[in-house]
Specification:
281 residues, 47% helix, alpha/beta, Rossmann fold, single chain, 13% strand, 7 strands
């Protein structure tokens, strides 16, 4: 039975990925920063009849001690590890000028440096096995910038640049790097993320417009996180996986448009989609 480590599994994509991989016959090590929040995952596993295929553990990707402990509990190299799915992620909504530096750094620590730190601990095992797959849950935000979401977009651009570079270095050892790039989906990341809207912000008209507009668009068009779980399962099952998997209609459009349309055109299209022309400054 192949074994996989998944981060950020208490809800959203991580939960959906864990359930789908368990259903596909994987031995899943599902990790999360706060084990008191495992209830939703446990209920989903029981409902799917796969709770026996999943081990739940604590892992904070920003804490070196937590990473070392979680990797030690994998009992490597006595037991194999076939893949890791980097899903843990955070965000913060707001105009860049208004965002506290602590929020910006937190996003980069989790979404970027956390991926690097855990990968570095697992690479010796994958190299020794001469095989392994490193799956990174990226975003359509890696294709084009988004208003009031600059640190999150930056973290995804950064992790994709790192992943493209790492792929050159590890392919000789039979290690595949895979990027999963979803569009808008119904997950708790935005509900649980701080929204910075200072009453005296010069950007307040834009921020208020986006708060209403984005929520309406997500409610109308956001997909089921199960789609992302299936995309990860498909990539891990593929004999020769693609480097990028865009998931959802807007992500697929952005994937197609990347490098083909000028950035100014893309920005105008996104602005029109978000109704930015209606903002009264």
């Amino acid at each position: 039975m192949p074994r996989v480590l998944v981060t950020g599994t208490s809800s959203g994509f991580g939960l959906a990925i864990t359930v789908e991989l368990a259903k596909q016959g994987w031995d899943v090590v599902a990790t999360m920063r706060d084990l008191t929040k495992r209830g939703e995952l446990d209920r989903a596993l029981v409902a799917a009849g796969v709770h026996q295929a999943v081990t739940v553990g604590q892992l904070d990707v920003t804490d070196p001690t937590s990473i070392e402990r979680a990797v030690a509990e994998l009992d490597l190299p006595n037991r194999q590890l076939d893949a890791v799915v980097h899903n843990a992620g955070v965000a913060a909504g707001g105009a860049f000028e208004d965002l506290p530096e602590t929020d910006v750094r937190r996003i980069m620590e989790v979404n970027y440096f956390g991926v690097l730190a855990l990968t570095k601990c697992l690479l010796p095992t994958f190299r020794a096995q001469r095989r392994g797959r490193i799956v990174i849950i990226s975003s359509e935000s890696a294709f084009a910038g988004q208003p009031a979401n600059s640190p999150y977009c930056a973290s995804k651009w950064a992790v994709e640049g790192w992943a493209e570079s790492l792929a050159y270095e590890v392919e000789h050892f039979g290690i595949d790097i895979i990027l999963i790039e979803p569009g808008p989906y119904r997950t708790s990341i935005w509900e649980n993320s701080p929204r910075i809207l200072p009453k005296d912000s010069v950007y307040l008209p834009l921020l208020r417009h986006l708060e209403v507009t984005v929520e309406a668009l997500v409610a109308k068009s956001a997909g089921d996180p199960a789609d992302v779980g299936k995309a990860v399962a498909k990539a891990l099952a593929a004999r020769h996986p693609r480097f990028r998997y865009a998931v959802g209609p807007t992500a697929k459009f952005n994937h197609f448009a990347r490098g083909k349309l000028p950035s100014t055109v893309v920005r105008k299209l996104i602005g029109r989609y978000l109704g930015l022309g209606r903002v009264r400054w």
